[in-house]
Amino acid sequence: MGTVPEPDSTSEHPEVVLRAARERFIEAFPGRISSFTLLSDSVCHEGVDGPIDSLRRLTHQMAGLAGTIGFPTVGERARELEQLVIASGTAGADCAKFHRVIDALKAAFETDRSGPAPDWAQPDAESLDGPLIMVAEDDHDQRAIVVATLRHSGFRVIAIETGGPAVETARAQRPAAILLDVDLPVVDGYAICRTVKTSPDLSSTPIAFLTARADIDDRLSGLALGADDYLIKPVDPRELSLRVQRLVARRARTCAPGDEGSALTYETFAHAAGELLTRHGGSLVLVKLPRTGQDEVIQRLVVNARRRDLVGRYDANDIVLFLPDLTPTAAIERMRESAADLQREGHSIVAGVAGALEPDGVTLESLLAEADDALNAARYLGKSASLKSEGKREAKSEAAIPTVLLADDDPDVARIVDAQMRAAGYRTIVVFDGDAAAKAAAERAPDLIVLDLMMPKRTGFDVLHDLAASAGPRPRTIVLSGRGREDDVTRAFSLGADDYVTKPFSPQELLARVARLLK
């Protein structure tokens, strides 16, 4: 990935960037675990011919980012998994240990997430502008967990601890959905549901029971009263968030029953898209779905597709499209138009585009990797869509302002560091691979480089070697890496690094080290 252009908008506050990175990490974690499992199984079966490099890159990224955004135990377990991957390249894969460490990684995620979050991770109450959810739960701890989960998912929440004021609260506040415990003081959840569903002004409000009553008769009673869903405690926070999103979306949906668009399974999509790519070429688009209203967004993308276009469900939060015979330039214009239309309806999407009209030697997997790179760039830039080939920065003229080159293949880490540097008044250049880092260092003459070691195409060690061999003035260099072994640190310093910071890292400490070197 080449150099990313400088955003036109004013830089975000560093804490906002950290909070956004943490939210993306939480959202993406289940998918990453699935990827770890699939890749580790492949390594176990295929040995050194398996996807060791891909698995190592993913574990390395997680190990480097997790601690910085408030998941220290996850960072430790991810580093343990990374070392296991490294060992698999020489001593063979220990499949049972892979599974144990991945299970430990999942447990670490729950431990860190249930523990106290960093101060900067708490969103301001007034910043939440999502749909209003009413929660009726008499248990203090359960109520706090549900409220925190919903607020973290972007909902506004009003919580009550008895059933007495439930109906009047619903009538006054007009929530988008209601979560009810059954065994509430004063008025039980069944009675509340019956009243709401028989009141003309409230009957369209979706209701979900959230209760420990798991007996089939209790479930049938709740659903017979008109409840839209029935959840048994304990419920996973991710499932709760998804269920509430669907309740809200169901109420908002305006299309007739049976008109909803549907996406192909990824297996079906990949088979059909691979054949179209071979015969016609075209563009592949990876779309990051919003947290809420995913069904409406998918429906719109399917409806807007041409008859020969393919739309598939890549994972829980991403849609993939293949647009036969369409150039990448035309594809990105189309996606920007779709994004603008969806934005007017209150939905935000981000898309990465890659294409090949002459598909000789091009695979669907390679296009998908390029589209993922483009998606990372679009998210970093705050754009609705981006091409992998986009992104040359124009140099600025303010020579007195130090320029910092940031080279890291993890867009969240890059964004966090970029926000810190910009907030401190530095100009920044951001790249995502070793080739782009070496080129930017040679052509842009930065004053300082913040350099990851594990990057695509060329490593940070390669970049340091090039800097040492160059004839011109050499920029100060800080290595920022998840590799903390003594031989890595020694090697970096021997190649001319001025400082070495190990991930997870404190953004404030990194900024202080940058300022020291630029004095």
What's this model, at a glance?
The protein is α/β, with parallel strands linked by helices and 519 residues long. It has 18 helices and 16 strands.
Tell me what the structure shows:
By secondary structure, the protein is α/β, with parallel strands linked by helices. Helix content is 50%, strand content 15%. It has 18 helices and 16 strands. The strands form 3 sheets. A 6-stranded mixed β-sheet has the order 6-8-9-7-10-11, with helices on both faces. The chain has a 5-stranded parallel β-sheet with strand order 2-1-3-4-5, with helices on both faces. The chain has a 5-stranded parallel β-sheet with strand order 13-12-14-15-16, with helices on both faces. α1 packs antiparallel against α14, α2 packs antiparallel against α3 and α13 runs parallel beside α14. The longest helix has 33 residues. The radius of gyration is 25 Å and the shape is globular. The two termini are 31 Å apart. 43% of the residues are buried. The N terminus is likely disordered.
